[in-house]
């Protein structure tokens, strides 16, 4: 189970764990989610 991908959560990931953030963003794009906020 993944936590909800809120804007602040993603910004925190990008700041502290850029590699993980990139992988998650790619995963989101692959699933076609358009609400990344």
Structure characteristics:
2 helices, globular
Describe it for me?
This protein has 2 helices and no strands. It has one domain (1-37). It has helices at 7-16, 18-31. The mean pLDDT is 74. It is globular and about 25 Å long.
How are the SSEs ordered, and which strands pair?
Layout lengths: L6 H10 L1 H14 L6
Helix pairs in contact: 1-2
Largest sheet: none
| Total number of helices | 2
Q: Specify the structural class.
A: mainly alpha
Q: Could you tell me the strand content as a percent range?
A: under 5%
User: Which stretches are low in confidence, meaning pLDDT under 50 for 5 or more residues running?
Assistant: none
In one word, what is the shape? globular
Give the mean pLDDT.
Answer: 74
**Span from first to last CA?**
20 Å
Element string (H = helix, E = strand): HH
What is the number of independent domains? 1
Number of E-type strands? 0
Helical coverage, percent range: 55-70%
Radius of gyration: 9 Å
